[in-house]
Prior knowledge:
Layout: H1 21-27, E1 32-35, H2 37-45, E2 52-55, H3 58-68, H4 73-79, E3 80-82, H5 85-91, E4 100-104, H6 109-117, E5 125-128, H7 134-147, E6 151-154, H8 163-168, E7 177-180, E8 191-200, E9 204-205, E10 211-214, H9 223-228, E11 231-234, H10 246-259, E12 265-266
The chain binds S-adenosylmethionine.
The site of S-adenosylmethionine has 17 residues, from strand 8 and helix 10.
Amino acid sequence: MNDPASAPADEPPGGPAADPLPTWRRLAGTSVLLDGFHALKHAVRFGAEVPVAVTADRAAALALADELAPDVRDRLAGLLQEVPEKTYRTLVARPHPTAVAALAVRPSRATNLAALAHTPRTAPVVVLDNPRNLGNAGAVIRLAAGFGATGVVTTGTLDPWHATVVRGGAGLHFATAVERLEVVDLPPGPLFALDPEGDDIRGLKLPDDAVLAFGSERGGLSAELRARADHLLSLPMRPQVSSYNLATSVAMTLYHWSAAQGTHRAL
Ligand SMILES: C[S@@+](CC[C@H](N)C(=O)[O-])C[C@H]1O[C@@H](n2cnc3c(N)ncnc32)[C@H](O)[C@@H]1O
């Protein structure tokens, strides 16, 4: 957690005149970029360690905090250091409308793996089997955070901590456990793989320790994941529609899990 104990609540660490750029340059290569106010707000809320945060307009950023995040307003005030607009633009690939950017420490793989492996599990793990689209992965992490899922595991080459995924996830990587794993190393628990050819998901209760797997945008589920699956489930879909978007499929499935607690028969 951030605790800039030496600075008054409304002042950034080191005082208003301190230069955040040396810290930024030192950490940029190894840290998670939080791009925009909302990503920073979520990361701080969920306990991320944020060594440096900048804005091109501190008053505007704090006004947003007053309006949208009073719970972390003082912590944001203690973190955000104002830099010239020109400087801010050199720190990010695409300037964000809120002109806020920060660097956070990525949680250790060991910590995430322990969270994913922990039993008894009280909420499912979502598996994206070889996803291709960074925006989809970010949207799924945001969903997982919203539903309180245990974590999101990706297989394949996509980096689930890529800056574009973090941007799509609105900084909610810090609210769930996000890691890349091989199919053989997936966390324990009954594996439900979602596929348009599976059994209708309606009427089934997904257990809290479920591992919910979704295929890639183009190719669907890999042979390796299918071989490992305990159940193949489909989401209701009218004939002649081939499939849903990956992230919306995850949304429906997590909603089904959350809404059906105690109301349907268990598998
Ligand atoms: C865009 S779809 C993949 C479409 C791909 N052409 C295929 O052959 O499956 C991405 C993933 O979303 C999930 N999905 C999409 N529509 C679904 C449905 N009606 N029922 C179950 N899962 C679905 C599956 O996990 C699927 O692999």
